[in-house]
């Protein structure tokens, strides 16, 4: 069986840091890139754990819907990850509304697929405000066995300060994104 504590720690810390580094290095431009990178790092983690009975799939059909990433354990879905990315400066309300839709989607899976043990939302956004949803706050609102992993591109959630590399990254990112739209 997958060690929940180790996998949870990996998603909350290591995966978050790897994805932030990929964003910083401009390997990730959109949600599709985010899915691919997360899938790769999760698959790599299981490979290092020598878990032959666990495998990772991107967007498999699950109860007539397609979650972003599912970890299967002994051929049954065990963990579900929903990834959200907003690099545009959107009103915070829009970002939070999307987050709530993803929470409802994950709750749907948890209720309909009994083998799912836990769900994660990895939430990438760019704002001066930090969005924080503790597991306790989620439970109070009826969302159980879920964690939101918050990744603010602009602000470091631990130090509550702007990332030193942010301004240069934002300038490069916007320039590259504009160049991509030209094709």
Salient structural properties:
183 residues; alpha/beta; two-stranded antiparallel ribbon; 5 helices; 45% helix
Largest sheet: 5 strands, mixed
Return the structural class.
Answer: alpha/beta
So how many helices? 5
Rg calc: 17 Å
How do the helices and strands line up, and which of them pair or pack?
Elements (H helix, E strand, L loop, with lengths): L3 H21 L6 H18 L5 E5 L10 E5 L2 E11 L5 H21 L5 E8 L9 H6 L5 E7 L2 E2 L4 E2 L3 H16 L2
Parallel strand pairs: 3-4, 4-5
Antiparallel strand pairs: 1-2, 2-3, 6-7
Question: How would you summarize what this structure contains?
Answer:
The protein is of the alpha/beta class and 183 residues long. Helices cover 45% and strands 22% of the residues.
Characterise the protein shown here.
It is a single chain. The protein has 183 residues and is an alpha/beta fold. 45% of the residues lie in helices and 22% in strands. The protein is built from five helices and seven strands, in the order H-H-E-E-E-H-E-H-E-E-E-H. The strands form two sheets. Strands 1-2-3-4-5 form a five-stranded mixed β-sheet, with helices on both faces. A two-stranded antiparallel sheet has the order 6-7. A hairpin with a 4-residue loop joins strand 6 (155-156) and strand 7 (161-162).
């Amino acid at each position: 069986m997958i060690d929940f504590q180790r996998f949870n720690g990996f998603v909350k810390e290591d995966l978050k840091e790897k994805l932030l580094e990929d964003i910083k290095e401009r390997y990730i431009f959109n949600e599709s890139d985010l899915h691919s990178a997360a899938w790769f790092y999760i698959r790599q983690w299981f490979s290092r754990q020598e878990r032959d009975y666990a495998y990772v799939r991107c967007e498999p059909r699950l109860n007539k819907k397609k979650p972003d990433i599912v970890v299967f354990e002994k051929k049954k879905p065990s963990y579900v990850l929903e990834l959200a990315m907003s690099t545009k400066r959107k009103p915070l309300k829009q970002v939070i509304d999307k987050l709530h839709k993803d929470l409802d989607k994950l709750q749907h899976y948890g209720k309909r697929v009994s083998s799912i043990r836990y769900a994660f939302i990895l939430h990438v956004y760019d704002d001066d405000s930090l969005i924080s949803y503790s597991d306790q706050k989620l439970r109070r609102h009826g969302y159980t066995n879920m964690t939101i992993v918050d990744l603010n591109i602009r602000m470091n959630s631990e130090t509550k300060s702007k990332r030193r590399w942010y301004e240069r990254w934002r300038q490069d990112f916007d320039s590259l994104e504009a160049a991509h739209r030209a094709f």
